[in-house]
Amino acid sequence: MNAISNPEAKAEPVEVEQQKAGPVALPQPADLKPKKKKNRLRMVLMLAAPLALAVAGTWWWVTSGRYQETDDAYLQQPKLSIASQIAGRVVESNVANSMHVEAGAVLFKVDPEPYRIALAQAEAALEGARLQVEQLRASYSQAEAQARDADSEVAYLETQLKRQQDLSGKGVASQSSLDQAERNLQKARESLSATRQAVASALAALGGNPKIETDKHPTVLSALAARDKAAYELAQTTVRAPADGIIAQASDFRNGQFVSTGTPLFSLVETRSSWVEANFKETQLTHMKPGQKAEIVFDTYPDRPLEATVEDISAGTGAEFSLLPAQNATGNWVKVTQRIPVRLKLQIEEPELLLRTGMSATVTVDTGVSHGFPGLTTAHATE
After folding, report:
1. Does residue 216 lie in a domain region?
2. Are strands 360-366 and 275-281 parallel, antiparallel or unpaired?
3. Measuring CA to CA, which residue among 141, 163, 208, 134 is closest to residue 149?
4. Which of 33, 284, 345, 353 is most solvent-facing, going by the fewest CB within 10 Å?
């Protein structure tokens, strides 16, 4: 039989052992001292770091500003456009790309034969002009002689007319003889007038000076100028290098090519005259002026700094001399710091350096003036 539980039976209490926590230890004042020291040190560091940065920044600002630097700088060398001053066919060419030439070296020659012929013609014309002047001088002498003869003839006929008038008054000479004498005198006077005009014409042909030197006569001077022009054009058939430099853009220049007057054929980059054009911000030019020392470092030779001198500061910004200057008269104008070109002359040009026009460089100019404190500037003597 199933056992029947007794409702009156009491459940035995279950004892749960509770672990009693021990007493909590309170911090003593002696244990708080290290933590206070750490907090003070942390506070000091937190205050000292910004203060040190502020002092360092102030010192940097006060002592900076003396050296103005820009990497917007490029080497410049004169570029000469070589052209022929006369037209003709090239018969000799001595140029090639990147070839170094010295001043006076023959670059090319144009066919000189047509110009030799022109010079011979000009010389012949000169001799003809000289002969013409001699002929004019002879004509002048002849006109003077004719004028003297005509003058003496007039004087003689005037005497004859007076004699006929006296005889006619006495009734000895006939009226026809008197009329004939008057007619002869009139014809002689007309002949004298014509000879005097011939003398004046011959004198004018001699430039008003019958004793003028042959080569000073205008006709001869004109012939001399034509001869000199022909000789000059003949000399221009040989084109020489105007300066030391390097040939560029000559890949298409060949013998047999026909050249026109003034047409650019190739370029010559001078190597003896080099400068650097640095575009400084307008805010960097406060204390910059010509004569100040500078240092130039080309990107090609980063370990070869070169000495330079500020030679010139441009009269305007680069935008002012551009093909299309900026127009700021609009409602959407935004102020942009402008750049002004500064020209620097290299003090020592090292021949072993391969300097080519257009090379990039970094320029540092010693202005000799630092920022200083607000309202003050600090000047430094530059060596």
Report:
1. yes
2. unpaired
3. 141
4. 33
Instruction: Look at residue 286 and tell me if it is in a domain.
Output: yes
Last residue of a domain, one of 267, 282, 311: 267
C-alpha 312/C-alpha 310 separation (Å) is 6
Structure-token pair, residue 63: 């002592």
- Spatial strand order in the sheet of 258-259: 238-240, 106-110, 88-93, 258-259
Residues 28-77 have pLDDT tens digits of: 555 545 666 667 777 777 777 787 787 777 666 565 668 899 999 999 99
Q: Whole-model pTM?
A: 0.65
Domain boundary among 210, 233, 256: 233
Alpha-carbon torsion 66, 71, 77, 78, what sign?
negative
What are the residues whose beta carbons fall under 8 Å from the beta carbon of 126, sequence distance 6 or more?
220, 223, 224, 226, 227
Task: Please identify which residue in the block is written with the tokens 């300066």.
Answer: 243
Parent domain of 375:
67-77+271-324+336-379
Q: Up-side HSE of residue 85: CA atoms within 13 Å toward CB?
A: 12
β-bridge mates for residue 343, sequence order: 277, 312
